[in-house]
Design brief:
mainly beta
Length: about 80
């Protein structure tokens, strides 16, 4: 969630990215089993996501091993394309 922070990039949660500064949230993470890079944006409901995106576990399985080996995956709700 952006909270009171200014957007860092132009891409919304669930969109593919190459670096943190591509994403409005400032968080480009390996998401899902394949570990494809996508902008991560936390959500609690579909209304928290951009138009056309859905809130669910598909948008929020973060591969923490990419940050520090041995941490595993963390499933948290995030915005993703349907």
């Amino acid at each position: 969630e952006l909270g009171c922070e200014r957007p860092k990039g132009v891409k919304q949660g669930g969109e593919s990215c190459a670096a943190d500064n591509d994403c409005m949230s400032g968080s480009c993470e390996p998401i899902g089993a394949a570990g494809a890079l996508a902008c991560y944006e936390a959500c609690n409901a579909n209304a928290d996501c951009a138009s056309g995106m859905l809130c669910g576990v598909d948008g929020g399985t973060l591969d923490l091993d990419a940050l520090l080996p041995g941490l595993g995956d963390l499933a948290v709700p995030g915005c993703a394309a349907p």
